[in-house]
Amino acid sequence: MNNKVLIVDDEKLERVLIRKGYDWEANGFEIIGEAGSGEEALEFFDVKEPDIVITDINMPYMDGLQLAERIRERSAKCRVVIVTGYREFEYARRALKLGVKDFILKPVNINDIANIVKNIKEELQEEEGHHREYNQLKETAKQNQSIVIESFLQLLAENRIEEKEALPKLEVYGFEGLLKECVCINIKPFKNQDGLMEENLATSKNILDFINDNYKINSISFIHYLCNIIIYLTDEDTKEAKTIANEIKKGINEELNMEVDVGISQIQHNYAGISKAYRQTEKAISASVILGRNLCITYDEYAGIKKANQGNTEINWQDFVFSVENCLEKKVEEYIDGYTNLIRKAGVTDTEYLKLMAMNMLSKAATVLTRHGKSLGQLVGDAWLYEEVSKITTVREMNGCLKNIINHILKYSDSLRTKKSNKLVDQALEYINSHLYEQSLTLKSVAGKVYTNESYLSRVFKQEMGEGLIEYINRKRIEQSMVLLNTTDLKAYEIAEKVGIGDPHYFSICFKKQVGVTIKEYKKPKYD
């Protein structure tokens, strides 16, 4: 793109000389006009915005310096070059303080003009490059900031960030209103199971943009990594949550021609209420298998259905999820049988309640998937999932449905577990071997270093290595003790300390168990 040049001089002959004396176009410039006065030059400037203005210093009404000052007020980008006689030279030098780029002495030498405008062109190109780079960096920073905020909101909704860490960020991002009062609206689009994640995200972004453009509400919104649109209402709008949710759903149905399930929480307060509101929306959406799809369902409606429960159906959910994650099929089946037996004993025959309780257990099992950025609907297909649960009419059918669907989760989890356990054992071995002779080395300390729990590490270690973790540590230590017994005169208790076993008696027991003889017998000469 050529740089635009405006020539200003009250003498036409001087303007013609500058215009005709240099091949502007061939050198990347465009003469956009000539002006005979400062006033006329400003009219050109305001319309055509030149990059370079070459002006005589001595003109009536508005001289070149006054023109330069007026141009400086209008644009920081435009470069002004002053043409001056020798007698105005010192006067012209003061023009540099007004942002004048350079000056040319009369009589005008075209080579001087050529050199000056060439330097200005290079400077403008470099400046444009910096400006473009700055804008790109600014846009990238803006996008990164959006990603950081979205990630923070997801952690907040799922209660995966400590309050003391979250509170300063809530203030920085201007989200303090969530602490006072909030309602969560969870919008779940009907997704194509075979669709790519990028397509589902694009659909969700389209919905979120539509909401932001058409509904003026006090809200904080983001796209969940499972592609749901999460909206937190604050201030007065919390009391109108269901009305707002219904209006949004209607707009999505009619304007975007899409169907969505919508869950609405109760009004919540304080920090703990933020994640509680989100969890309530998930439960509300699970009731769509009973109440129907493409509806707005409140947590109160979900709770009303669940109220039919006349017995205790709560189980150790944490251990149940652990069993699913680690593919303990027999234990998972026991949990399913125990859960459905509790419902059977409660004497509940309401089929809607049975479906709701099935979704309750499935939602717990599905947390294994969400940790890997996947939903149950994405794994088995939303339509199939709802169809299978909708078929439930008896506790027996509920039991079979749960085992069938959770089996899909177990298979998926097993495919991840194999890779994960191999990597985990490698990390554990690396840490053990580098700290083998430290007395503080225990199952607990190793589990802490590889960020897992002791029970899981113990199980996968034995599965991969064929021996328990503590057995492995003791075996390696006893092997080293045998080397020391053969190559040093150290006493048994000294060797025990060196290999990381602080209790000499325990060292003796481990030695006898592994080697088959006592330390004394081992040290006894093999010949008489």
Model description:
The chain is 61% helix and 11% strand. With 528 residues, the protein is α/β, with parallel strands linked by helices. The chain folds into four domains: 3-129, 3-Layer(aba) Sandwich (Rossmann fold), CATH 3.40.50; 158-281, 2-Layer Sandwich (Alpha-Beta Plaits), CATH 3.30.70; 317-419; 435-523, Orthogonal Bundle (Arc Repressor Mutant, subunit A), CATH 1.10.10.60. It has a five-stranded parallel sheet, with helices on both faces. β3, α3 and β4 form a beta-alpha-beta unit. α2 (38-48) packs parallel to α3 and α15 (351-365) runs parallel beside α19 (395-434). The longest helix is centred in the first third of the chain and has 48 residues, at 110-157.
The span between the termini is 101 Å
Low-confidence runs: none
The CATH superfamily of the largest domain appears as: Response regulator
Write the CATH architecture name of the largest domain.
3-Layer(aba) Sandwich
Q: Under CATH, the topology of the largest domain is which?
A: Rossmann fold
Structural class by SSE content: alpha/beta
Q: Percent range for helical residues?
A: 55-70%
Give the number of helices.
Answer: 25
Average pLDDT number: 85
- Large-scale geometry: flat
| CA gyration radius, whole angstroms | 38 Å
Number of domains: 4
Major sheet: arrangement of strands: 2-1-3-4-5
SS elements, strand count: 10
The proportion of residues in beta strands is: 5-15%
- Assembly of the depicted chains: single chain
Highest-level CATH class of the largest domain: Alpha Beta
Sheet of most strands: 5 strands, parallel
